[in-house]
Amino acid sequence: MAEEELPGVLILGIGGTHGVLENIAALLKKHFCLITMKEFLENKKEMSKKIQSIFVFECRPTIDQELLESLPNLKVIGNSGVGVDHLDLKMISNFGVKVTNTPHAVADSTADIGMALMLASARRLTEGNVLNFPGS
Question: What residues does the D-isomer specific 2-hydroxyacid dehydrogenase catalytic domain cover (predicted)?
Answer without folding.
Answer: 23-113
